[in-house]
Write a structure and sequence with these properties.
The chain has 19 helices and 22 strands. By secondary structure, it is of the alpha/beta class. Helix 12 links the parallel strand 10 and strand 11. Helix 2 runs parallel beside helix 13 and helix 6 crosses helix 8. The longest helix is centred in the middle third of the chain and has 23 residues.
Length: 541
């Protein structure tokens, strides 16, 4: 194997993926397509791969992910990721990406197909015809025109379903706690409470992810609040709807019909719903169109390749995404953030326990870097700090590691900046031997590539954050700066730059020395013996 071959990324595809996606992946990496692997087989093989691509069949459990010692990214060729332990992946710094918009139209069309099928009894009538019967009266249906469709969840699919249903003459009412009333009005949809939606709807369709708060969201209590003769559709995720409660509601006559494409257990071999003629079932076909499968495969291939190149991905579930047009603006600040984090971390003894991590943004960066744009700068600093104390920290897991370690992370912004167009200030509070210590550093940009440290622990300085830096605190008295420089010169260490900051004459001061090489422990000890030197630390940036 050549050096180039040895360093090439390896991707494992463990579920059926359209050939277009496989071809794209093979343009960048070595790809193995191994279908129907058992849990033990996948666990035994996964350590050889940098990326895992799945659909809904493979379960990327905690055990599998922990065995993937090379894994950098897990790609889901579809929307839902309930078959991936995202929390474990995040803790291990593994990116999880999906293809959220690839099957939007297919899933929406399937939902509408199911809605029309239960309104006109199409599957049952078809079965009757195939058995040689002609039962027109038995399969009397209802029109959807003029009826109220209750949409639970106004994400991509929910919105497309709403648009299609409006074209059928239906009136749409929707519940989504994460969308504003103004946004809903822009879409031409009436937003209401969950209770109001399910109580006025003639048809109810679900389009939420399956999380703790949505498990059995449609259950016994919800059915009791619905209209008599309501019809229910679930083409989202199994488990949102309580299947036992649905069966009871159908038997009581409360629910006239249901159409299900997803189930709590797939296949639903023992479900009592299989016995009910009022229930239409399809085997998880929402994304099963040629167009959706091709789009999902190509999208996830592109996302996995981008992740393996260490470039920003658009559809990450456990990492912040920044629009490409913002990256040119943010990149210099990200570099500055990394420098500030490394500097501040090295001023704190490694035996300390970090308690509070605070970042403040002042001036232009506090405005143009609004929202997630400043958050990624904060994460860059957090990653840089934590990397000084532990291994394996990256943009994916920095926040999770901080949370697990009990570190409080806060961020503030203001448009005002007294001395600089933009200023980033990092403060870290740590505890050591029962005593709290706070370190603060601040930096700015004088130009796109001109990074400056302008404050250390309240002292004004103007230092370039590069190479080796000596941070020396001392009492502002004669015969300190000269002797320190003499010690360095005597050790053959060249001084490239020097800055001194103080608050008042005779008080404590700080001296920042940029030096061309590392400083030995013996030389550091000799500097500490200089009269009126309080402390000295060597920082490598």
């Amino acid at each position: 194997m050549t050096k180039n071959e040895a360093s090439k990324n390896r991707v494992l595809v463990s579920d059926n993926l359209s050939e277009e996606g496989i071809i794209k992946l093979r343009e960048f990496a070595d790809v193995d397509v191994l279908l129907d692997l058992s849990k033990d087989e996948l666990k035994a093989r996964i350590a050889d791969y940098d990326a895992l691509v799945v659909r809904s069949g493979t379960k990327a459990t905690k055990e599998i992910i922990e065995a993937g010692t090379r894994l950098k990214v897990i790609g889901r060729a579809g929307v839902g990721v309930d078959n991936i332990d995202v929390e474990t992946a995040t803790e291990r710094g593994i990116l999880v990406v999906n293809a959220p918009s690839a099957n939007t139209i297919s899933a929406a069309e399937h939902t509408i197909g199911m809605l029309l099928s239960i309104s006109r009894n199409i599957p049952a009538a078809n079965g009757s015809m195939k058995s040689g019967k002609w039962e027109r009266k038995k399969y009397m249906g209802v029109e959807v025109n003029g009826k109220v469709l209750g949409v639970i969840g106004l994400g991509r699919v929910g919105y497309e379903v709403s648009k299609m249903a409006k074209g059928l003459g239906m009136r749409i009412v929707a519940y989504d706690p994460f969308i504003s009333p103004d946004k809903a009005r822009e879409l031409g949809i009436a937003l209401s409470s969950f209770t109001d939606v399910i109580s006025v709807a003639d048809f109810i369709t679900m389009h939420t992810p399956l999380v703790k708060d949505t498990h059995h969201l449609i259950g016994k209590e919800a059915f009791a609040q619905m209209k008599e003769g309501v019809r229910v559709i679930n083409c989202a995720r199994g488990g949102i709807l309580d299947e036992a409660a649905l069966a009871a509601a159908i038997r009581s006559g409360k629910v006239a019909g249901a159409a299900l494409d997803v189930f709590e257990n797939e296949p639903p071999e023992t479900s009592e719903l299989l016995e009910l003629g009022e229930v239409i079932m399809t085997p998880h076909l929402g994304a099963s169109t040629k167009e959706a499968q091709k789009a999902a495969a190509v999208t996830i291939a592109e996302e996995v390749i981008t992740a393996l190149k260490n470039e920003p991905v658009r559809n990450a579930l456990n990492m912040i995404y920044v629009e490409e047009e913002m990256m040119d603006t943010l990149n210099p600040y990200l570099v500055l953030a990394e420098k500030l984090g490394r500097l501040c971390a090295q001023l704190i003894p490694k035996s300390s326990r970090l308690e509070h991590f605070n970042v403040s943004y002042e001036g232009e960066i506090g405005v143009t870097g609004a929202g997630d744009d400043t958050r990624i700068i904060t994460v860059a600093m957090l990653k840089s700090v934590l990397s000084w104390f532990t291994d394996g920290v990256n943009y994916v897991n920095a926040e999770a590691i901080a949370k697990k370690s009990g570190i409080k992370v806060t961020e503030s912004k203001t448009e005002d900046s007294e001395h600089f167009p933009s200023l980033i200030t990092l403060s870290i509070t740590a505890q050591r031997d029962g005593k709290k210590e706070k370190k603060t550093v601040a930096g700015t940009l004088f130009g796109k590539n001109d990074l400056r440290i302008v404050q250390i622990d309240g002292y004004r300085v103007d230092a370039s954050p590069s190479g080796y830096m000596l941070i020396c605190s001392f009492l502002d008295k004669p015969k300190v700066i000269g002797p320190v420089c003499t010690v360095l010169g005597g050790s053959g260490i060249n001084i490239a730059g020097m800055q001194v900051g103080r608050e008042k004459v005779g008080g404590e001061a700080v001296m920042v020395l940029n030096v061309d090489s590392s400083v030995s422990e013996d030389t550091m000890a000799e500097i500490k013996r200089v009269q009126n030197v309080i402390d000295v630390k060597l920082v490598k940036l």
